[in-house]
Amino acid sequence: MPETNQPIKLRVTRDDVIDFGEVPSDVNEILQRGVSLYRHDRNGADLAFREALALRPDALPTYLCLYKIHTYQGNLDEALAIAQAGLAEAARQAGLDPDWSQWKPGEISPDVNGPGHFGLYTLKAMAFIHLRRDEAAASQRCLDKIAELGAMESVGGTVIAALAAGVG
Questions:
Q1: Residue 57 above 80 pLDDT?
Q2: Domain 14-167 belongs in CATH node 1.25.40.10
Q3: Alpha helix segments (H runs only) across 39-135
Q4: Integer Cα distance of 125 and 80 in angstroms
Q5: How far is Cα 52 from Cα 44, in angstroms, rounded to an integer?
Q6: How far is residue 26's CA from residue 147's CA, in Å, rounded to a whole number?
Q7: H or E element: which one contains 19?
Q8: CB-based burial of residue 58 (10 Å sphere; 0-12 exposed, 13-18 middle, 19+ buried)?
Q9: Dist CA 136 CA 156 (whole Å)
Q10: Residues with Cβ < 8 Å from 88, sequence gap 6 or more?
């Protein structure tokens, strides 16, 4: 077996790459690194995602990565704070009221790749986080708003509503 001083190159296959949608390539690279790190270095993943957030705080998938890993780890205060920040950024980008409780049916674009949809998805995530924090009333307020906006199916709110019904 010949010896080589060449570093081993790891190849990422299409199956290992997460499609974050339209994000700048430098942010995408950091997010991909964070996802890869999460399996064996959760702190490293957190640092990578925060690096991406510092680089481009308008890249919405970064908030998703952060609030998901903190929810999975049970860091629910941190998950909620990040979700709220992501929701605020999504509302800003979509031209929505920063107070999600003021959102009205029909004012959010139906574009599933748009910031309005991201805001609704994040509101659903907040419902789940509140549920995990034993804050049933706060969770239900989020779910009620999603239902009022007609988005329960499109963001998976029915799953969280079923969990809430089972918890209650």
A1: yes
A2: yes
A3: 42-55, 60-73, 76-94, 115-132
A4: 9
A5: 12
A6: 36
A7: none
A8: middle
A9: 18
A10: 98
d(CA 21, CA 60): 10
CA distance 47 to 88: 22
Considering Cα of 43, then 45, then 50, then 55, what sign does the dihedral take? positive
Measured between alpha carbons, how far is 68 from 74 in angstroms, rounded to an integer? 10
**Residue 51 neighbours by CB under 8 Å, 6+ apart:** 30
For residue range 125-158, what is the model confidence (pLDDT) as tens digits?
A: 999 999 999 999 999 999 999 999 999 999 999 9
DSSP 10: P
Separation between Cα atoms, residue 38 and residue 52, nearest integer Å: 15
- The residue type of 137 is A
